[in-house]
Amino acid sequence: MSPKLVRPAQKNDVLKIVAILKEVFTDTYGPALKQAVLESFLTQQFSEEKVAAELEHYRLAQFDNKVVGLLKLRSLAQQRLELEKLYISKEARAMGFGKLLIDDAVAGAGQLQAKCLWVKVWQENRGALAFYKARGFSKIGVTEVHVFETIFHDDVLAKVL
Ligand SMILES: CC(C)(COP(=O)(O)OP(=O)(O)OC[C@H]1O[C@@H](n2cnc3c(N)ncnc32)[C@H](O)[C@@H]1OP(=O)(O)O)[C@@H](O)C(=O)NCCC(=O)NCCS
Fold it and tell me: What is the CA(141)–ligand 1 centre distance, in A?
C-alpha cells in the first residue's frame, strides 16, 4: 500500500478531478439549489475542457494510487493566494487529507511570494469553517457568491503566512 501524498495534477487526472468536483459540490451545495440549476452549474463549471485549461492550479491528494481529494489555488494581487477549492471525496474524509493539502499549500506559498492565504466559505458550511479556524484562518470579511440566481453568503477567511 502506497503512502498518502500530495502531487501536482497531470493531463490524465482530468476525468478524476471532474468527478471529485461534481461529487463534492453536489454533496455540499446541492441541497441549497434547484436540481436544474445544479445540473447547469455542474456542466458549465466543471467541464473537462475547463479543468484541463486550469490544470496547473490543482494539487491532488493521493493514497494507495487513488486520487481522493484536490486543492485549487490562484494567485491574487498584493501577494495573496486564494484557495479556490478544497474538496475531499466523501469516502476519504476525516483521514487527514484536507490537512495534508493545506500544509502543502502553505509550504509552497513561499515560492509564489505569497504572504497571505484567502478562502471564501459558505456560512452554512459549519464543518469547513471549524476546519479552517483550527488551521489558523481568521474571518476578515463577508461576501456573496452567485450560482445563477441563488446567492450564497460566505465568510472570507485569511491566514498570514
Ligand atoms: C472540509 C474538508 C476539506 C476537511 O477535509 P478532511 O480531509 O475531511 O479533514 P482532515 O481529516 O484533514 O481533518 C483535519 C482536522 O479538521 C477537523 N475537521 C475536519 N472536518 C471537520 C468538520 N466537518 N467539522 C469539524 N471539524 C472537522 C478534523 O477533526 C481534524 O482535526 P484534528 O486536526 O484535531 O484531528 C472536507 O470535509 C470536505 O471536502 N468537505 C466538503 C467540501 C468543503 O466544504 N470544502 C471546503 C470549502 S472550499
Answer: 21
